[in-house]
């Protein structure tokens, strides 16, 4: 795959980039290693000011950055602005909270005494250069949610971004440089997928994080495992959206539309499988299908557009294959199910709702990465939970119920890294984010994401410390 910006709304190639040579890759890894040796000893105050400056600069650049993301991967301009603003928020959150979250921890005096020590503490120390392999769907946010905690912890970053968002990748390196981070603290590697293994095997690269497809996760995890290096993986999901009898059905249907088509439907945490109790099924489906049918599909630069194009021609073809397989095996198409009429350019696909889903259909187990929702009818909570967990993924989940016992049951039994009641899943810098099963392992954001790439060090003193 070439490293290029191709406008998904038109199919036009706007800019191409040359991949780094082996010599250039070596120069960047060498620079990262050298930068880490100095940066790891900097104060929190120093890192905090640099991160705050990065947030200020991004805020100033927000409109230009939003347009760049829209041109590169097709998200609506409204969504792109929101993504950039979310990154500003995360940078400021980590600048404000990192020091307290990385403060020394002190075990209980009883345990210290029992160990025979005079004083014990646990210190969070940085690891070194971390490789981040990031996807195109949230080209700024996915990177910042790694970079902000990693840099505040004293690590340095090497970014291998998706090949269709090179301008965003280059911008991110420039942003951290302009913010005052030392040369080598955060660098973009314009390389193809085939070059990732060699970078990851380099002994100066100590860990990796990846957000992307299941095959990509397997590849990175296997190499990192062979090298005994820490990894954090977020590999997508097929999130359930449960609607139970006590739900506000009108609100659940309205939010459900947004939850499905956010980012043109290309979101790991988008609601994908709508599991609705039989008592409210007809009411929900009527309102949900009506809402999906009314969405405006069009130019993502137009403020009135609800759903823009998919990011690539292959992405649209993959979605079409899933829908056609379901249709051929008996699924009912309640709306959409095709390319918009009259559009000869761009990779658009109509918001689609499929019902009568069976286990014979690929879409029952595979993630649909686009504006396609599947409907399931559940006779009771037991069946709803069984359907919700009947997937290889376990990233997040949404449940609409006002019943406290049902909520507690869902917290106990849903196999997911997140459970959102009476609302849609949305990541926040203060809450841990990640999944189980084939959605990956490890956590991003909050203190958990900050600690993932730290050397959690026990410091034991056998004699009183002189001050």
TrEMBL record:
Residues 3-459 form the Aldehyde dehydrogenase domain. Keywords: NADP, Oxidoreductase. InterPro entries: Ald_DH/histidinol_DH (IPR016161), Ald_DH_C (IPR016163), Ald_DH_CS_CYS (IPR016160), Ald_DH_N (IPR016162), Aldehyde_DH_dom (IPR015590), ALDH_GabD1-like (IPR044148), GABD/Sad-like (IPR047110). It comes from the Bacteria. PANTHER family: SUCCINATE SEMIALDEHYDE DEHYDROGENASE [NAD(P)+] SAD. Belongs to the aldehyde dehydrogenase family. This is NADP-dependent succinic semialdehyde dehydrogenase. It comes from Streptomyces gossypii.
